[in-house]
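Might you be able to review the protein record set out just below?
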Amino acid sequence: AQVMGAVPQLDWLHPWLFSRYWTGFTGLLTKPIDGGAFVKNLVLQGGYVLVAGALAWSRLATKDIFD
């Protein structure tokens, strides 16, 4: 993800990379607290969890393990 973030031809992809806001938690350690980047990172990571979870659930639902 960091290599993809360094390639200028992929500028359209940069906001969606999981490493984009990975240091956003540091805003919580400052005075006054700046949670803007942290919230952006939280939303981005939540999106990754939802998409990956939906894909995993759809794959698991097609298996015959529930019978």
